[in-house]
Each structure stands twice: as structure tokens, then as C-alpha cells.
Amino acid sequence: MRSVIDIVDLTAAEIDGLIATAEDIIANPAKYSEKCRGKKLATLFFEPSTRTRLSFEAAMYELGGNVLGFASADSSSATKGETVPDTVRVVGCYADIIAMRHPKEGAPLAASMYSPVPIINAGDGGHSHPTQTLADLLTIKREKGRLSDLTVGFCGDLKFGRTVHSLVKALLRYEGIKLVFISPDELRVPDYIRDELESAGADWLETASLEQAMPELDILYMTRVQKERFFNEADYIRLKDSYILTADKMALGKSDMCVLHPLPRVNEIPMEIDEDSRACYFKQVKNGKYMRMALILKLLEVE
Amino acid sequence: MIIGTITNGIVIDHIPAGKGMEIFRYLDLEHVEYEVALIKNAVSEKMGKKDILKISEVIDLNYEMLGYIDPNITVNIIKNGERVQKIRPQLPETITNVIKCKNPRCITSSEPELKHIFKLTDREKGVYRCLYCDSFAK
């Protein structure tokens, strides 16, 4: 039995395999529509989510399986003081696989130590979000045709942006990757990610200027400054509008650049940018469902 | 200052000066019945100053904890006045319930019954990170 808590729990070869499965699902959806008949996915979302929870649920339904779960901690026994290990030991009696989102970092790992069924980390605080990374990688592969030899810019909240941390770790395993981190001083990538960058001998730089970074980027990964990660609202208000991707800034980018965003957005990407052919964030949403389907099949060991 | 030798027990030597009390407390030696001596700031050729802990019982030691405090610490097991074993604890790959994660966003901050586990991520620099949230050990 395997869980996926961190993107590096999957080897690069396994990620290639998931991408191949996802592309086959896109091409032949009917072939997969009964694969999980009789199986149940539990979505344990201790923190609100629209995309990720519905994506997991849609993924399981499209595989012919069923879904149970809760959408906020308020509607779970967490309000009665139940621990994460107890919750998953109980839910593991009802479901074949669990997707868990939790505001505390490491909660899905703690769950995987006690769960009788596989756990998928659906986002833990500001820490990591491996299935978003799977969505990102499939999108990059489909849009650029490769996962190597790319200059990838990350912009916005790089400190608490769990999708950034997971994608960085995944990209470090491919050749010819250059990473450009664009953020205000207060929201720079955390020390442990710097540590990973140094250990991997990565090609990376930090800047506060999106305009300066724009011309060399193949991928621009925008993020939202997340109100829920701040202990102090004044800091949030001061930093929330740090980067807004206007049409003027888009004009500085390559014609085949690809703009990604894990969504939800607030105002960092105005709606006018949606019309630009380089805006790929809604394709990313769809790709997320296919990669989650591929991952569920793998962890349930369904042929 | 002269502290007598022990016939049976443990001598923990080469403790970095100032760290002896930390080990004394961790081993919960305050209320034991047997003889214990903590020597602080002993002269050391190699270290300048060091702490030494002499315990007149062979007790179970947590080598993870000793290795984490300093991998140069030596543990000598004494039987019938002779040193029968010399152990040099290594930096362990993981340490469990020796230190606590200080990150208020870590799951261990709200579920205190979980084991506090840190993994060694850089042996050369002795860097440990929380297994759950990746925060550095402080």
C-alpha cells in the first residue's frame, strides 16, 4: 500500500507513467469509466476547497467509483477533538482510498502513518500540494511538449505557496531547468526549499521585478497571496497586491510563454488576460482531474 | 578538582562545555538513588573545555539523543573498574521525541501525542528537518 504525501514520493519515471495514463484517459475516456466500480474515495477536507475536492470527486466518478467525505472541519469530528490518526483509522473502515486536505502542515503524513488505506495529500497548509503539481506537469508537457530545458518563473507568495514548493521539487529532477523566483522580500521561498535548491545544484535566481524576469520565461507560474496563511492581517493587506499580471506585462513575455495559476485567483490575473492564448490556467484545472484519475488508479493498483 | 573513578557504570565524556546539564536533565538523573557526578568545564587538550558525566549504574542510554547533541561525545561502559566498551554515537538518520518542532503551523503543534520526528538532511552540517513540515530543527 502506498500513499502520496510529497511529490518526490513518486519517481520521475512514475510521473511519466501517470502522464501517459492521463493522456490515454483524455483520448479514450470510455475505457476507464468502470475501472473503479465498487471502490470508494473519501475526501476529508479540513479546510475549504472548490477545485481540488471537486476534482477528486469528479475523477472518482469518471472512474465509476463512489465518493464520501466532508468539506470542512466544522462538519467532522475534528470539532469534538478527534485526532487525525483516529479520523483516518475510522474512515479507512469505509473507504478504499483517502484524499486529505488539512490546514496544518504534515497532517496527511501523520494520517498515512496510521491509515489502513492509501492517503493522497490534497494540500497541507503552506507546505505541499503534490496533486496540483501533477496537474501542472501535465499542462506543461501538453503545452510545451517537454518537461526539460525550460525557464520557469514563480511569482507572488512563494513562502506559503504550497503549489510552488511541490512544483519546484518536481522540476529539480529534470534537465536544463532554470528557476526564477519573483516575490516581495517577505514572501520569498522558505529555507527548506533553498536547501533543496542548493543540494540539487539548481540554476536559480531571485528578483522582485516581474517586468525584468518576463522576457526569458517559458512558464510563468502566478500565485495568490493567501489571506488564510497570515497570522497578521496588516501584513496581508500590505502584500496582497504585490504583483498583478497586466496586459503591459504580458507584452514583455515570449509569444509561446505559458501562464499557469493553481487558482483561485483574486486580482493577480485580471480577467482580460483570460483571452490571451498564453493563459493556460483553465486547461490546468481540467488536466488536474485526469492526473488525479491516473493517480487513483495507480494507488488502488487497478490495471 | 579530583572526582573518584567508578567501578561499574557509565562515563559520558567529551561533552561540549555547557551541554552536560542538558544531558543530565534528559536522562532524568535528578532524583536517582545511585551516585552521579557532573563535571563542568573540565580541562581538555582536544576541546579546551568539556563536560563529563559519571553515572555509577549501567543505564539504558538514548544514543540518538547523544549523537544529536554532539557526535563527538564518547560513552565508556565501566565494569569492575575496567572500561569494557567505548561507544561513539553517530548523528542518527532520524531522531524521535528528542526535540520538538517550533513551527506553529505544524500538525505536531495541535496534536501533541504525535511523535516529534526529525530527519537528517545534511550530515556534514548536522542539519535536521521536521519530518512533517520540513522546518529546520532549532
CATH class of the largest domain in chain A: Alpha Beta
Count of extended strands of chain B: 8
Largest sheet of chain B: 5 strands, antiparallel
Level of helix content of chain A? 25-40%
Oligomer state of the chains in this structure: heterodimer
In short:
Chain A has eleven helices and nine strands. With 303 residues, chain A is α/β, with parallel strands linked by helices. In chain B, 27% of the residues are buried.
Main attributes?
heterodimer, A: 303 residues, alpha/beta, Rossmann fold, five-stranded parallel sheet, four-stranded parallel sheet, 11 helices, 37% helix, 16% strand, B: 138 residues, mainly beta, Alpha-Beta Plaits, 2 domains, five-stranded antiparallel sheet, three-stranded antiparallel sheet, 3 helices
Write the layout of secondary structure elements.
The complex is a heterodimer of chains A (303) and B (138).
Chain A: H1 12-27, E1 40-45, H2 51-62, E2 66-70, H3 84-91, E3 97-102, H4 107-114, E4 119-124, H5 130-144, E5 150-155, H6 162-171, E6 177-182, H7 191-199, E7 203-207, H8 210-213, E8 219-222, H9 233-239, H10 247-250, E9 258-260, H11 281-299
Parallel strand pairs in A: 1-2, 1-3, 3-4, 5-6, 5-8, 6-7, 8-9
Helix pairs in contact in A: 1-5, 1-11, 2-11, 3-4, 5-6, 5-11
Chain B: E1 9-16, H1 20-26, E2 36-44, E3 48-55, H2 63-69, E4 74-79, E5 82-87, E6 94-96, H3 107-110, E7 117-122, E8 127-130
Antiparallel strand pairs in B: 1-3, 1-4, 2-3, 4-5, 6-7, 7-8
Structural description of this entry:
- The complex is a heterodimer of chains A (303) and B (138).
- Chain A has 303 residues and is an alpha/beta fold.
- Chain A has helices at 12-27, 51-62, 84-91, 107-114, 130-144, 162-171, 191-199, 210-213, 233-239, 247-250, 281-299, and strands at residues 40-45, 66-70, 97-102, 119-124, 150-155, 177-182, 203-207, 219-222, 258-260.
- Chain A has 11 helices and 9 strands.
- With 138 residues, chain B is mainly β.
- Chain B is 13% helix and 36% strand.
- Chains A and B meet through α4 and α7 of A and α3 and β8 of B.
